[in-house]
Specification:
With 201 residues, the protein is α+β, with helices and mostly antiparallel strands. The chain has four helices and 14 strands.
Length: 201
């Protein structure tokens, strides 16, 4: 409870209140590339909105960019799912078994996507499914299964995103990014920089 109060007070004092800020840049999931028949590394990032206490995950799929909006509640659910993935990973590795199984679903806020520099298409919320997927008995990944995104303006405009795959270390890092302590540290740093900037008007 004390942590939540601290976060609320910081958010209320944050001078960039209301704006999305780039929070994390260095996320690198993998996607299956049909042309070379293997997984290839791509980029992803997270923005944070202090006013709404919401996150936006961006997945850069080559020509396409896909965005998923997550509330604080959805982010907390995601943390719990990654905890379960980590637990399953330990068990599957010890038992030397393979598994392809859904862990749980998390409901997103709005979704959006675009091709190259074309305008953003805004889509409806979706149920993001997190899967435990074994590449081998010793290599188990967390997979985001994103359903087809449908434009809120035109039912005939849609896009089916690729499936980002995260190794154990990447999944744990992703979980930590949504942790309240790390969000508080980020907001404090942004506030400190804003205060410095304000002195030089």
């Amino acid at each position: 409870m004390r942590l939540l109060v601290t976060l609320v007070l910081l958010l209320l004092s944050y001078s960039s209140y209301g704006a999305d800020e780039r929070y994390v840049n260095n996320i690198q999931p993998q996607y299956f590339d049909e042309e070379v028949n293997r997984l290839k590394t791509a980029d992803a990032s997270i923005d944070y909105n202090a006013e709404k206490d919401e996150f936006t995950i961006y997945f850069y799929e080559g020509m396409y960019v896909v965005g998923l909006r997550l509330s604080r509640s959805a982010a907390d659910s995601l943390i719990a799912m990654i905890d379960k993935y980590e637990s399953w990973n330990k068990k599957a590795t010890v038992k030397a078994v393979t598994l392809d199984k859904e862990i749980a679903k998390v409901h997103t806020g709005y979704t959006f996507w675009r091709l190259g520099n074309s305008p953003w298409r805004v889509g409806r919320s979706v149920d993001l499914s997190l899967h435990f997927y074994s590449q081998s008995a010793k290599h188990h990944q967390l997979v985001f299964v994103i359903p087809k995104l449908q434009s809120i303006d035109n039912q005939y405009i849609n896009y089916h995103p690729k499936e980002p795959h995260f190794d154990l270390e990447q999944a744990i890092s992703l979980r930590d990014y949504f942790d309240r302590d790390n969000v508080i540290a980020f907001v404090r740093q942004k506030q400190k920089q804003a205060d410095i900037d304000a002195e030089f008007n």
